Structures are given as structure tokens and as C-alpha cells.
Amino acid sequence: MKAIAYLKGSHLSDPHAFCEVQLDPPPLEPHDLLVAVEAVSVNPLDTKVRAGQVAVPDEVRTLGWDASGVVRAVGSAVTLFAPGDAVFYAGTFTRDGANAELHRVDERLVGHKPASLSFAQAAAMPLTSLTAWQLLFERLGRVPGDLAEQGTLLIVGGAGGVGSVLIQLARRLTAMTVIATASRPDSRQWCLDLGAHQVLDHSRSLVEQLAALDLPPVTHIAALTHTQRHYADLARIIVPHGHIALIDDHDFFDAVPLKAKSVSLHWEMVFTRALFKTPDMIEQHHILNRLAQLLDQGLIRCTLNEVFSPFNADSLRRAHERVEQGGLPGKVVVARDAQPIASL
User: Is the whole-model pTM more than 0.70?
Assistant: First the structure.
């Protein structure tokens, strides 16, 4: 099968950063699906792994763990899917990624593709949606559909992939006041369009901006990016007995400033269930199916912003370049279908 391999520790200026190779189709374990890949989302994780900033096993040859496609074959213990099913999923970086014609993934990490979305749109959603769902409903302890419990959620980095979904989940499935941060006019409008009640400029003091607004106290914070830069403000903003959840990377994190307020600190890592094969790994399947229903019902919208096609090394290089540039609300996808973004 054709695949797009990557050079570990490479910069995009390196002509060998990506190359098209021939690999044997992967053997299936009992719970595995073999998926014919139609589209793959490019996340910051992909760029960090390629650049050597995040370690993965040496045997991982391809990137891309956020994908959509059609099931071609199933393992001996598979019960959730059959050949011909359209699926979307975020896999695990302990295996080869989906930058290939065929990809194997454990069925318990996979959801049925939203019927209303194209493959490119569907590929934009799994990793960020799972992160946002787990952060809000598992780490921060909110209950989906509970519109009685109040509170205020501050989302640092609201226009990014996770923030874009988190704004929508918090607005549609909770009664929380949602405050996002964004620094540019287009990303500010993006957050408002997704449902944020207010948008702060994270290039300025968050404390001063909140003080100027007539808003309820901040009870929950989702720190999605540049947490260290904003940490002093976040520690001042959060109420006593509040909750802060993080997703960004840190060599060291000092939780001491949170002690006086008895603030709870939570980490969200979307691959935890897959990495440790936790007993509740199938919960990822259930969450993705719930998200597919929300997307098909129009309660949340797809956050795809840019598509690169065809599915080859050059498109993948350009997609990585776009993600590394930053500043783009929503998600970047590489797809086999060259459908114009305007029609998505």
C-alpha cells in the first residue's frame, strides 16, 4: 500500500521531511479495523512528532492520528463495525498514523462518521472533540445536558481546534457563561459565532479585562495554550474551590499558587485511554457517536477551515506548514477528495 513516511527530527525545509513509500498492509489484531483512509487532520501533535519534540516509538513510520474513512476489513473480535461502514476516529501514536491508503485502529476508539459531513469535515473533528468533551465532562465534572448548574468557563485559546469545539459544547450542553480568549479580529469573531458570550484579548491583561465586565466569577478554566504565559492571571481569576484543566505541554508546572484557594488542577490527554488500554477504552467510541449525533442534529458545527489535496507528500508538507504558522481558527485537513472548501 502507498503511505507517506516522515523523517524524525526534520524541518519542513528538508526535502526528505515527507516521502511516499510502499508498505505492507498492517496485520489486524482481534479488535482492529482496517480503514481505507479518505482524509486526515493535521494537529500540532503531528508537527511536534515530526520535529522530534514529542517522542513516539521507533517503529512508527507515518503520522496522522485524526482521520476518517471506510472500513475494509475487521479483526476476529470486532462487534461494533462491519466492512463498508464510514468511520471517524483519533487513534494512538504508539502505532503508525493514518497518512496511508490503509490504517488499522482499535474499534473501541472509533465512531460512526456523521452522515451530514464529508470525509474531510469528519476528519477535522475527532481529536479536538474528544479532548473538549473529556476536558469539560470528565475532568471539570460538568454533566452534559444539565442546564440547571451554573458557573463561568474561561477558555484560553478559544479559536484553536479544541477551543472551537469546547465553546460549542459548553454553550449547547451546559448553562455556563462562556468566555473565550482570542487576539485577532477574525479569531474573535470566530469565537463569537461559535457561541462565546464574551471574548477577551489574551495579548492583554485578562484580570483587567474581566474586571471591566459585568460577568459572574470564573469557576472553571480551560487553559489550552500558552498556559505559563497566562498562569499568574489565571491563579488570580479563578474562584476559591475552582477548577483549572490544562492540555498544553510543560517541562515543569508549579501548582503551589493554587493552594490558598484550594483549586483543583486537572490534566487532559486525549490518548490516555488508548495508550494505557484502560478498562473504559470503549468510552471513546461512545463519545464519538454522541458527537456525531450532535453534528448531524446541527447542535454543534464542524470546525474545518482549510483543506489540502490530493493526498500526497506535498499536500502534507503544505498542511504542516500552515499549522506551524499558527493563527488559523479551526482545523486543517489533507483529503483525497479535492472538494472546494467553499462547498464544505
Answer: yes
CATH code, 132-267: 3.40.50.720
Domain range summary for the chain, segments of one domain joined by +: 2-127+280-335, 132-267
Cβ atoms of 284 and 109 closer than 8 Å:
yes
Q: Which CATH class is domain 2-127+280-335?
A: alpha beta
Lowest mean pLDDT among 78-82, 172-176, 188-192, 337-341: 337-341
pLDDT for 311-325, tens place per residue?
A: 999 999 999 999 999
pLDDT tens digits, 90-115: 999 999 999 999 999 999 999 999 99
State the pLDDT at residue 149: 87
Task: In whole angstroms, give the CA distance from residue 293 to residue 225.
Answer: 28
